[in-house]
Fold this protein.
Amino acid sequence: MSRSDQVSEHGSRTAKESGREGSVPRQRASSRSFLASELKQLFRRGRTQALLLALAAIPVMIAVVVRLSTAVPPGRGPAFLDRITQNGLFVGVTALIVAVPLFLPLTIGVVAGDTIAGEAGHGTLRYLLVAPAGRVRLLLVKYVGAVAFCVAAPLAVALAGAGIGAALFPVGPVTLLSGDVVQPGEALNRMLLIAAYQTVSLLGLSAIGLFLSTLTDVPVGAMAATIVLSVASQVLDQLPQLEWLHPWLFSHYWFGFADLLRQPIGWDSFTSNAMLQAGYIAVFGALAYGRFVSKDVLS
Amino acid sequence: MTSADRGAGLAIETTGLSKRFGHQLAVNSIDLAVPQGSVFGFLGPNGSGKTTTIRMMLGLAAATAGSVRLLGQDMPGKLDEVLPQVGALVEGPAFYPFLSGAANLHRFDAADRHASPGTRRARVAEALDRVGLSHAARKKVRAYSLGMKQRLGIANALLSRRELLILDEPTNGLDPQGTREVRSLVRSLAADGATVFVSSHLLAEVEQICTHAAIMSVGRLVAQGPLAELRQAGTAQLRLITPDAGAASGVLVRFGMTPVIGHPDGADAVITSVLPGSAGALSPNGSRNPGGAGGTGGTGERDAAAALEAAPEAIVAALVADGVRVRGFAVERGSLEDRFVALTGEGFDVAQ
Amino acid sequence: MTPTWLRWMPAVAVPAVIAAGVLAGSVPASARDPLPGKTPAQVLAMIGQHTTKALSGTVEQTSELGLPDVPQVGPSSGPAAGSLAELLTGPHSARVYVDGPAKVRIQVMDRMAERDAVRQGNEVWLYNSKDNTATHLTLPGIASGKQDRGSRMPGSVATPEELAARMLEKVDVSTDVAVRGDVEVAGRAAYNLVLTPRSQGTLVESVAVAVDGENGLPLSVEVRARGQQEPAFRTAFSSLKLEAPDAAIFNFTPPPGASVKELALPSSGYAKRDLGQQGRETSGLGKDELGKLENDRKAPAAAGGAPSVTGTGWETVVGFPARANSAAAGAPSVDTLLNDPLLRQATVAVPGGRAISTSLLNVLLTDDGRMFVGSVPLERLQAAAAAR
């Protein structure tokens, strides 16, 4: 650390720069504007819009197929499929269930894997850093962007589902798993809750994607690795030999949102899921920090 | 001299800066000193370590050893305070192809937490105007030519008022017209008081716009100083035509030269000799001059003194005084190009 | 610039903190005062005396019976709910709401589905969300008030302590009953009543019942099998609140669109068996109710097929004759068992027939259609079959 001995000598000279630091409120405003720029760029980008459209297409596809086909025998296909003809609101729930294992992780993988590696791939990472964006700040802004997508993705499925369901099928009181019946307003609330549950479910995967994204300059690699991990976690969750590991897998509670369709609502899986995801965010956030702050940006 | 004294007037100062990639030493203990207000040419063949040095200066890569100070502050320790005053073009321009030129600049400006969002629109427009891209501001960068991207990259470096501009190969991909524009842009920036650090492998470019220069070769800094000194330091050759070869040699030896006597046409002898103080005397870094701790700033003056002693007119006067019949006398001074090739010592396409 | 190792500190520290937190969480939060010492008879008396009328909680059940696991893959819900084996394999969790004996709701929480049993007064509803079917039955005139424990015990003059002592005397021949170190279940301190068979000829190693140290409510039951590390069967409260649940929970009307079946109780054993399955989930609560249902179930079987019993205590082997009469009653027959795909998958060919081996129970299906069941090694069943 041969540089350290020179720091003190120049301490006095930095005084003339101190005028810049007086503008703290302006800096905060600028931090917001960086985040705003990131969100704008993420959601205005054609690829992101295509991903959200693809997700919204799932309920539309389900609804149209059910509308055009004869009655589905109960107990076959994804849960609630047979209820759709009676109540359009089930389209959203069914589509969410279908989207959980693959489609949602796929889109999150693309967005989270692209965070840092995408910038590196374009070469824009070096210009962001010399702007200077600040490495920790850049990581945070990028993660918040990924989180915003985690909010948008399940919402796209749920809202598109509710919309197409209301358009093609009657809407009425909804039967919960417990056999109790709730009004459409409450049912819509529950669907939004499920979407929120999915958002929380995907936060851990986003943190993993962010970390993987700091490892490479090739965004496709980080995306693929993130998606593969999400599939691997689900496969491991099915192996009874690894039962001790199951509660630690980030996908373990992905289907736990069924508890939100019971009466009364079971919050246990929501809490467990949130704690697990928080753990993943902490671990992979720390890893991403360690990696990115000490990384040579040579792209 | 402490480094603080020396650093007072330096916009960029590196001390023993090194970077190792695996077994390869990409940058080998270089001591750069870029005076404030100068237009500094950073010369070197491709792969000589210029871009790696620039990356370390800007805190993009960590130094294996040594230190960097920009505008008197430690890098990357004070990165957040220094970089807002530094505009940079690093290893070619890079942009989001799916955004327009103006949107790209907005994005980079938003990343700088010190930049005021209120004036952003105006500053982006001004920067675009300065590089002559106003007409293409709304076009997606995907549709830009290499030269347009290069201009946009320079515009990005000019988004705010900068004290220091670090431009890596700024004229790459530009047509002759664009090259000339960049040259005048650099001059106007320097006229505003900014220090401009231009890396290039184009000697002509450096000779035209720079006040100072440094030359890199295989990771080492082989020479640096004011451009005039570098030119002077180039091997100057004395060429003397006289029938009195013996007496002439005696005089030249007195001036510390080692004359070579030849008889190309049989009548008069042609004596050639390297002018003293012109080659190898300039000390670019510590490795060439072991006492180099105080060398960088003073070398030029000392060399100038030596060169003055051996001024051509003094030699001629001495020859005449000794009765040597001087029938022809010429001093052939090498160009920066000769100097460059002599120092880098490798086949290098300077005409590129 | 901070040195490189410092930057990796968070990545090292965070997992360490999480690991420490998890370890700290798995250790009982505070060292409680030990419960006052009690004899097995006293603990048994506590169970008898417990007056807990209202509670809501979650019961977790795990079993390691050596049966193949029911695969639960993908977004579709679990296997057919009717499968007898399904409830015996893998983990299950159920929410239990009780407000007096006449208000009970049990929700077996399946993946993306739920099975409900709701009792309010004499009305009982069974609901299965998977096929959206509801079954209704009316319990024959058991006035809810008469469910009082004391009145149903034989010889109601006896105090629970005396009853417990008498019971212990009876089982002492075959079983060692002891109170082991306190355990914690659902955050409550509990006595650990352990029943250990004295016989070596049974598959059961021990049965442990955790009894709430405050109110005598059984909180968990754990059955261990010989030569197996994990409990063969365990059901326990994972959370428990001793408050009356919201009354609305016990109101159930079949949702629109559900197919509703009406069951007349005495005519068929099927509904009771189903209820018995549901009841098993809850083990700790209403044990006597469960016992009653078991008895009801056995009655028609005994009438129809006259099973033979060999051995005593833990080594009892029950033999069922060939299927001639089995269709008449709800008794399990070789046919119905083999029709269950999961059980059929579980049978292996052995000398003299096919066997279903679990860690707690062996079943032998002889080639001539008889069935022998016992919590004993397979050789014993084969011996019993050969003895005939």
About this structure: Chain B touches chain A through 49 residues (CB under 8 Å). The first helix of chain B runs from residue 3 to 7. Residues 1-7, 278-308, 348-352 of chain B have pLDDT under 50 and may be disordered.
